């Protein structure tokens, strides 16, 4: 029997990480406050999950100042997009598996 969960990526296991990647797959980028609002996450929770995705090079982070306010922008990397697509495809195959 083949391993039906082989391509499910543990980096996307948490619902916040799944949400971050989902947002970044359909948008060029998203800033911290947008992700926080869309996902209903706390500052610390969102920061820890974005750091986990950054650590495996699935997203990149750009920090800048807009006026005097700091702004953090997140962008999915090509590797992140490729791995997320593989993850979603694996989930679909798992669901359709008899």
TrEMBL record:
Under the heading SUPFAM superfamilies, the entry gives: Winged helix' DNA-binding domain
Q: Kindly provide the name given to this protein in its UniProt entry.
A: Transcriptional regulator
Q: Could you name the domain of life of the organism this protein comes from?
A: Bacteria
Name one matching Pfam family: HTH_34
* Domain Winged helix DNA-binding span(s) in chain numbering: 16-95
Q: Which organism is it from?
A: Polaribacter reichenbachii
InterPro entries on file = WH-like_DNA-bd_sf, WH_DNA-bd_dom, WH_DNA-bd_sf
């Amino acid at each position: 029997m083949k391993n039906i969960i082989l391509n499910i990526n543990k980096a996307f296991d948490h619902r916040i990480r799944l949400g971050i990647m989902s947002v970044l797959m359909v948008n060029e980028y998203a800033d911290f406050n947008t992700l926080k609002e869309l996902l209903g996450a706390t500052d610390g929770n969102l920061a820890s999950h974005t750091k986990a995705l950054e650590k495996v090079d699935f997203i990149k982070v750009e920090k800048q100042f807009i006026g005097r306010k700091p702004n953090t922008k997140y962008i999915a990397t090509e590797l992140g997009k490729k791995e997320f697509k593989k993850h979603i495809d694996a989930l679909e195959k798992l669901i359709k598996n008899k």
